[in-house]
Amino acid sequence: MSNYIKPEDLILEFLKLNPNVHVEKNYWHLIRYGETPSIALYLPRFLQAPVLTCYDYEYVNRVLAVLKALKNLRDGVDIYISTRNTELPEAFHSNLPSLIVEPTDMNFSVVHRGEGVAKILLKEQTPNILSNIWIHEDLLSKVQNLIWDLVSTTHKYYPVSRGSEIAFRDVFLKGAIVLGLDYIKIECEDGVELGLRFLLPPEASEEVVKTEIIKRLKSPESVEVLDIRIIKLPARVLPDREIHEIASKAFAEIFREPEYEWFPFATVFNDLSRSNTSILAVGPHSHINITTCDEKLLAQEKIKILEIFTSFISKVISSLEKK
Amino acid sequence: MRLTTIAKPFQAGNILILPFTHVEDIKEPRIVINNIEAVPENAVKYDARVDIMDPRTRKRCFLVEHVLGPLRLVGITNARVYGTDKTWNFLRPEHRFAYSLGLSPEFVVGEEDGTQRPGLEALVDHLSDYVVKTKCRVYKSVAEEIVHENVDPFGYKGKIIIYPRNPGEGITLSVRLFKNSLENLLITEEGLQDRALLKRILRARTPYLIGLESEEALLHAVGDVTADIVGLGGLTDVAVSVELNFFYHALTVGAIKKARFIKEVEEC
What we know:
The structure holds two protein chains of two kinds.
Chain A: H1 7-15, E1 21-25, E2 28-33, E3 39-43, H2 57-72, E4 77-82, E5 98-100, E6 111-112, E7 114-123, H3 133-151, H4 166-173, E8 178-187, E9 191-200, H5 206-216, E10 223-232, E11 235-236, H6 242-254, H7 268-272, E12 279-281, H8 300-322
Chain B: E1 2-6, E2 10-12, E3 15-18, H1 23-26, E4 30-33, E5 36-37, E6 43-46, E7 50-53, E8 60-61, H2 65-73, E9 78-83, H3 93-101, H4 121-124, H5 127-130, E10 131-142, E11 146-151, E12 157-164, E13 171-177, E14 180-188, E15 191-192, H6 195-203, H7 207-210, H8 215-233, E16 238-244, H9 249-258, E17 261-267
Parallel strand pairs in B: 4-9, 13-16
Antiparallel strand pairs in B: 1-10, 2-3, 3-9, 4-5, 6-7, 7-8, 10-17, 11-12, 12-16, 13-14, 14-15
Helix pairs in contact in B: 2-8, 6-8, 8-9
């Protein structure tokens, strides 16, 4: 294991820049530079593995872009960085104008989808006797079909279904109700219980999710929706606060007029937005990169984007310091 | 070319087109969408679509090409247009963008199926009932030949040339989209002369949803070129020759943003 780089090793790089404060809670680190911070930067890690894998390249790049900006400007900044995919402690909910550095593909994001879980029952009275394997096979076949019906997204105009190019699907899927499988539990008496996870857009309720589940079923009469629970509400902050104004100006000067796009799942943004509306998520790379080992890491275009992002952060920090 | 407007309010899909009063004060083609002027300097996004933004209010209007092209193709140079969509469709990136900014669905003026503007077809067979010619005869062209080239994110090259033309010569378009092309389409103050083709353009879906290789994609692209060059530029007499790439609004709007214009009021 000693040859592997741990996410914690990145924290050491922040500590080399002589912060005033370093506190750790639940794999989140608060690292403060200067006496009176004027901005908070959040750097969440989305993966759980204790060592950095190829999937972490977007995380490492986000972190390095911030580190580079801090080398010239290390006063008045609070950095909150996580080394695991864990909940942000309440004590780390900053009231300062905050940039949440997430892989938004350099779009500005002020809307994040919510997340929830559902439980449904496939009503099949099947004696679960494994010796009668043909009965078990029949049941699994029905379960398999049901799962595919549930997770398949289709649309009359947009190429959202499996088989279309991922980049095109993603353009539309970011706003959809996305259903995925959590667990399968075969109950002898009632049938088969399926646990589902879902992502939901703003303005959607548990009732809307239920309607969507039923809509996707080929035989709704054989299925009962037992429970639907939203775990994290979708979040929106309107971009009318100081951080948005400063970030927009800095972005337009360095790069282009900002474009707004949703982030597809709930993050620290959703938690923070309950108490602080001066927040904005923006960062290099796409959420798609969180599960992609990119071989072309050193491509010129990506380096250019990282440099732009570093300049952007530096500009935002210095603009807030001047205020 | 004489300036034209619509005789009475007309609902075309998800937009309401209203007459432009006091054209004589304007003296040039002018389309205002959700109170935002459709002019090159207000185009803030132009790649897979075209968005305009009012620099004062910072309000933004999405997919304006599917208003500007169809209006000019049916022969309307001056109008006020309002989006009328009331419900969100968050699968659409433009709806998500509008929601992020706190705008309502009305600010997205493109149709959800990616067509140009099939709602205007009803007008095509009765143009004289709806389109009124004003007494203003104006001329607006580019001051000199514009040549603009670019490479899209997929590496496809695009090239556009906009030639000035004399008063009264109208607009001609020659458009190539990959293997398909259409030559010398004539747009006058009556709009696109070929009415059957016009209807097909109004129904044509975006290449973004159907791919680049079909004839339908080319027809859609003709509407988009009309929007970006003739509509945004407010031109009356010009010749356009273009080889489009994929995100071709970067090419076409990029060109019209570079242009200097000459204007003349012949009669008003």
